[in-house]
Structure formats: C-alpha cells, structure tokens
C-alpha cells in the first residue's frame, strides 16, 4: 500500500509531537539541557508539518517557504542540542543559517523556485546535520554507545539530504511544492518519518547512557573526599591483588587518623570534614602509578600498591604521616596530637580476598595504636620476610 504525501505528513506531525513531548518528559527526569533543544526541534517539525498542510489551501508563503524554513530551524536546534551535549561552543557563523532561511521567505513561487528552495534547504540541513554528527565523533573519552548511534543516524540523515539535491538538479524532474507532488517529496517524507524515530531513539539512548555512567561514577565515590568507596575498591582490587608474585609483591596500607574525635568535638564536624578532605588529597597526590586508594569509612583510608617493596611502603607511609602531622598541628589545636597511624602488609601471593587483607592490615594498625600512635607498622608476609619494622 503506497502512502500518499498527505497521510505521510499527518504521520510526521503526530510522530514529531509525540517525540517532542517524550523528550520534554525525559528532560524532567534526566535534567540534560540538550533534551530541551531536541524537544523544541521536534516541536518545530510538528508545527512546520502542520503549516505545510496549508499549501493545499493556497497559502504558499506560510505553507511552503515558512514551513520548509522551520525544518532548517529544527535541524539547527538538533545541532545546538548536540553542541550542548558535547560542551562545544556554537560559532557565530551558525547564526547565518537562520539569515539564509529568512532570505528564502522572499522567493517567488513557481516550479523553478521550488527546485532552488529544495536545493538550498537540503544543503543547509545536510551541513547542519553532518556538522552535528562530527561533534559526536569520539574524542579522548568516549561519549558512549548511544552517541555513536546518534552520530551515524545524523550522518546518514545529512548524506540523504545531499543525495536529495542530485535528482532535483536533473532537468525535467517534477517538483511541485505547491501541489505537493513528485517522487522526491514522497521519498523525503518517508525518510523523514524514519529519521524521526531513529534520531529520537538514539537521542534518548545517548542521554541515558551518560546518565547511567554518571550514576555509576557517583555510586563508586565517597561523597566527601571523592575517593573510591569500599564497594568500588572491592570491584577494582582483584586485578591488582592477583598480580602479586614473588618478584612483584603487593601491599596494603591501612591509614587511620589518631584522635580525630577531638577535632570534631573541639572544632566542629565541618573542621573534621575539611581534615578528611585534606588527607584524601594528600593520599591522591602521593599515590604511585597503578596504585588504588579508597576511603573505607569514618577516618579510615586504604592504599593498595602493586610491584612494591618494604622501602617504598615505609617511604610512602612516613611521608604521609609527617605531612599530615604538620598540617593538623597548624590547623587545629588539640590536647593530644592529631596524627596518622598506618598498618601495612606486604604480600607475594594473591590474598584470599580484599577483606582478609584488610584484616591483616588491621592487626598492624592496632599495633601502631597500641604503641602510642603516630607511626607505621609493617607486617611482611612474603617468603623472604624480615622481622617487623617500626
Ligand atoms: N567530621 C567527620 N567525622 C566523622 C565522619 N565519619 C566519622 N566521623 C567521626 O570520626 C570519629 C572516628 O572515631 P575514632 O577513630 O574512634 O576516633 P579517634 O579519636 O580517631 O580515635 P583513635 O583512632 O583511637 O585515635 C568519630 O568521632 C566519628 O563521629 C565524617 O564523615 N566527618
């Protein structure tokens, strides 16, 4: 069954309106501004297609030139949305597209002008759409699977609009925008309906993918220090722990603030929070390449090292201990010094689990606390273990 242009146009109006509403609702949940641009773009397509119905009543300026112009404007909004999504600045030159569109409102009617209108319109849409697809190319960090889909859908849509200009330029091709007749119009409408669905699907996919990644990132982080939390460490540790061997031992450093409660009690919880953030930053800056760090909770932090040695553990632990002691001393006055205790364990066999390793670290940490705090205790569990170091 062949669908006539009017039926296709009516389908376009309904579909574009539904997509505009859907994207607006999606925006309410996701709060991604690109969705608002895209929703407005689909609303414009719906308005433009409704106006296009008026050409049958002889309202050619509104029904053809203005309606087709809205199609250009809607693609421009697609592009603005993609620019927002990819955090790209829109150049001023892109405003020219709207100027050309306004200028086209002045075109007189007639089949020849229909052709010129169609070519200029198509090239503008192709330019905008291909540029939008270009913005979605992978750069450094991936924009995700949804963005890759959107990129190819927009590219295909742009190439279709370029291809559309070729038959228009062949002498004798029938294009009568006023009577709404001709094969190109028919093909354009079918492509339009398909593109509407594909673009809308890939747009929501793009935004949802980013949202899921953001939620994943947030779920992996401790909100105060932005370090990995225990769950994130558990997910990432096995890779590092399994790499331990006699020639490439691994280590865990369990770090706990001494007398931290005094900071909270005497200077307020906010001061305690600032100290935790400062320690997190200190750890982050001291972290060797390939190491992992996390805040386990409260005032307890952990570092996992790969391919390390006793000397490296002591150097790292002592460095942190000294810097933290100096920082706490100048920041807060307390009856007892606010310092760091570090319990470390060196291993050359993959441990049974991260929890088991943390338990071993706890034993060393307890020794430090019991012996007066402000120190590092190391338990060497390698085959060539030397006596405990202090
Ligand atoms: N400011 C702040 N305090 C916290 C946070 N989480 C836990 N705490 C506090 O950290 C303190 C940790 O307690 P402990 O480790 O037993 O106290 P401590 O004074 O460091 O004692 P030692 O470790 O034995 O030296 C408690 O007072 C908790 O209320 C947080 O996110 N922010």
Automatic annotation (TrEMBL):
Entry GO CC: plasma membrane
Residues annotated as transmembrane: 6-25, 34-53, 59-78, 90-107, 113-136, 143-164, 184-207
UniProt keyword Signal, yes or no: no
Gene Ontology biological-process annotations: cell adhesion involved in single-species biofilm formation; negative regulation of bacterial-type flagellum-dependent cell motility
Keyword Cell cycle tagged: no
Matching CDD domains: GGDEF (cd01949)
Pfam families xrefs: GGDEF (PF00990)
A GO molecular-function annotation: diguanylate cyclase activity
InterPro entries: Diguanylate_Cyclase, GGDEF_dom, Nucleotide_cyclase, Rev_trsase/Diguanyl_cyclase
Protein name: diguanylate cyclase
Keyword line: Membrane, Transmembrane, Transmembrane helix
Enzyme Commission number(s) of this protein: 2.7.7.65
Residue stretches making up the GGDEF domain: 248-381
Coiled-coil ranges per UniProt: none
Reactions performed catalytically: 2 GTP = 3',3'-c-di-GMP + 2 diphosphate
